[in-house]
Amino acid sequence: MSDKASTSSVTFTDLTPAAGVNQAFDAVLTATDRVDAAKTFVDSQCSHVSSLSPSSGLVSAVEKLLSSSDKKGAASREAALLVVCELLAKHQMAASPYLSSLLPAILTLMADKHSKHVQNAAVKAGTAIVDVLGPVAKRGVAVEKLVGAIDVSAKWQTQGGRGQPHHQDRRRGSPGKSGHACPTSSPPSPPLMC
């Protein structure tokens, strides 16, 4: 076993074999072609939706990577977002209960200051999550996260990146809930218009 795999900051407890999954995930994080590496990882290590269960640690490892904000971690954030996209492409609606918790972090990364690649991957991942949600889940999950993503204290780039591409889809998918959410989203909106 290489030193890199044994010192990995990402661990998976329920996937078998755990060391192989750690090495495969580390390979995604360090790959030059991250899109292909993410697809290979999901195809080989996440063939069943149970790989997304909380006991596996995969979603929490991805969440940990997405919450980092340093410049050196941009490639890791992009790789994690690409893994999310591939997981959603493979498992579709079955993966949404596990991955929808990542939506706030993904919305924040739409305004990542360090990498356009991260921004693009975040838009792709956020769109994929919202697209696989059913109408009821869009109303119950996405609307609250999108409205909650508007934070007046954040910089304007972050406010613009958070949720803006998804508000139109949200309005089309659940117009009744959008109208119901107007009182909640109205107070944070005026500063965004200036």
UniProtKB/TrEMBL annotation:
Pfam families noted in UniProt:
HEAT_EF3_N
Q: Does the keyword Ribosomal protein apply?
A: no
| Source taxon at top rank | Eukaryota
HEAT repeats located where? Answer: 102-135
Ranges in a coiled coil: none
Keywords of the record, alphabetical order, are:
Elongation factor, Protein biosynthesis
Q: Which GO terms describe its molecular function?
A: translation elongation factor activity
Stored PROSITE patterns? HEAT_REPEAT
Segments carrying the region annotation (Disordered) are 157-194
InterPro entries registered for this protein in UniProt = ARM-like, ARM-type_fold, HEAT_type_2
Q: Specify the protein name.
A: Putative elongation factor 3
Question: Which residue ranges have biased composition labelled Pro residues?
Answer: 185-194
State where composition is biased (Basic residues): 164-174
